[in-house]
Specification:
single chain, 475 residues, alpha/beta, six-stranded antiparallel barrel, four-stranded parallel beta sheet
Length: 475
């Protein structure tokens, strides 16, 4: 499954600027006129496509240093301090005040020829950090790239917004708690009525729908048992939501299906809209969970990977699972010993494993099925859901942001299997996930919604969290 683990997210055509992580702008400043100890041309090659390394500015005097730092363009995301060989001190050590006043991060880059940290910067890092300067000592080029991308993400998130549709009657109530995301990460959460989606339906003809579906279906979507009329509704919902996202210049959306749309008798669920809009460069989450959407933004725009969210059900909670599904969904005891169940959990949402994009499946295809309902809300042949298999023995990273938008919970896990539940009409499939430390994760959990991305990205996400000012716990 290596090819799926390493695969970048699939994009259909071009994406607008507000859906792209910006290029990071780095300003190299040389402590004194002379030859820099870091090969800037080589560094620019390493950072090609991720950052623009501006022309070096060589400092001539303390006054020049103060003027340079003070007058740096607002486009600059960080300063790269550079030394000249055998220089006993640097201007930022003797005159640190301009760095503190300007407030830009400082990156001491690693030794390019050895790809290891420059340990002569230990004291400068601690000195400047103690004064209040944001300082990073780059350990190697790989970490440096992640740091540079993280700085761009910080800029990106402060200028972004997301739209959640529907009543705010779940704990992820954007009217009550969305402000924490805006205060700490800068992203605005816009709440709009589900009815606004429906008002856009009439703008699109049946021919518009057929044309779009002809362009987008390809081998990525296979019709299983969804009615053609319901498929048209699903595509129409995609176009209606997309128009609102374009008006808002928002990076993603979520719809409160269970707390609003479904309980009012509607079945025009946005599962297909989610996957199609991901292909357009947006992020999309179930239930209008804006916190999960922030996690998806981290993964999508920082890692450039496709992700999904789903409900998590620890196998040890057999009573709660049985109450929810009408069945405890126990693992096959011939494959999984009971002594190992403490680290096993199922993920499932809306009758399937969740809403995976086609590139997340071994086949590269998802199957369009009638929405199968829940134990309480019976399916009636309406709606268009997404059914897909997740790859076996796939390493995954689990991501959960807390409601306070100050803490990030990360976990390592493996997808063991996609389980087909033949005798449960409202639950066709779930995935069985094995955690390294499920109990530790549960003891610190924010909510049942977890975001899943293929591969081990824990260290990269820890770097992003550090730049965003988030504390992290890893299990």
């Amino acid at each position: 499954m290596k090819y799926i683990e390493n695969e970048k997210r699939y994009l259909y055509g071009g994406t607008p600027g507000y859906l792209k992580r910006p290029i990071t702008h780095l300003q190299p400043i040389l402590a004194k006129v002379g030859k820099p100890t870091v090969n800037i041309e080589k560094l620019a090659e390493i950072l090609d496509g991720v950052a623009k390394v501006e022309n070096i500015i060589a400092i001539e005097s303390p006054q020049h240093w103060e003027e340079v730092v003070k007058n740096l363009s607002d486009e600059i995301d960080a300063i790269l301090p550079l030394s000249v060989p055998a220089l006993p001190t640097e201007i930022w050590n003797s005159h640190p005040k301009p760095l503190l006043e300007r407030g830009l991060p400082v990156l001491f880059w690693s030794l390019l020829e050895y790809d290891e940290p420059d340990f002569w910067r230990w004291s400068a890092r601690d000195f400047l950090k103690t004064l209040g300067v944001e300082v990073y000592l780059v350990q190697n080029n790989s970490e440096g790239i992640s740091l540079v991308k993280s700085l761009a993400m910080r800029r990106f998130l402060t200028s972004s917004k997301m739209v959640v549709f529907g009543e705010q009657n779940f704990p992820w109530n954007a009217n009550a708690a969305g402000m924490f995301v805006t205060e700490n990460l800068g992203t605005k959460i816009v709440v709009r009525s589900i009815d606004e989606i429906g008002k856009n339906y009439e703008k699109f003809t049946d021919k518009d729908i057929e044309d779009i579906w002809h362009l987008r279906k390809g081998d990525r979507y296979s019709i299983k048992n969804v009615k053609h009329s319901e498929l048209r509704k699903a595509v129409r919902m995609y176009l209606a939501i997309k128009q609102i996202l374009e008006e808002e210049k928002a990076m993603g959306f979520g719809v409160n299906c269970f707390g609003d749309l479904l309980i009012k008798g509607r079945r025009d669920v946005p599962c297909l809209a989610q996957t199609l809009l991901r292909e357009d460069g947006y992020i999309a989450s179930c239930d209008g969970d804006f916190i999960a959407m922030m996690c998806m933004a981290f993964v999508t725009y920082y890692l450039d990977k496709t992700c999904m969210m789903s409900n998590m059900y620890p196998i040890s909670y057999q009573g709660a699972i049985k109450d929810h599904f009408g069945d405890p969904l126990l693992p096959d005891e011939s494959r999984y010993q009971r002594s190992d169940w403490k680290n096993l959990a199922r993920i499932g949402h809306c009758g399937f494993v969740g809403v995976p994009s086609p590139e997340m499946t071994p086949e590269g295809t998802v199957y369009l099925s009638e929405w199968v309902g829940t134990l309480e809300i019976k399916h009636d042949g309406r709606g268009c859901g997404i059914d897909g298999n997740l790859p076996e023995n796939m390493k995954v990273s689990i991501v959960e942001l807390y409601f306070d938008a100050k803490r990030l919970l990360l976990a390592e896990a493996n997808i063991r299997e996609t389980t087909r539940h033949q005798n449960i009409p409202h639950c066709k499939s779930t995935a069985l996930i094995e955690f390294k430390d499920l109990q530790g994760f549960i003891d610190n959990i924010s909510r049942e919604h977890t975001v899943i991305v293929y591969g081990d990205h824990i260290h990269e996400l820890e770097i992003l969290a550090r730049v965003l000012g988030l504390s992290t716990k890893v299990f």
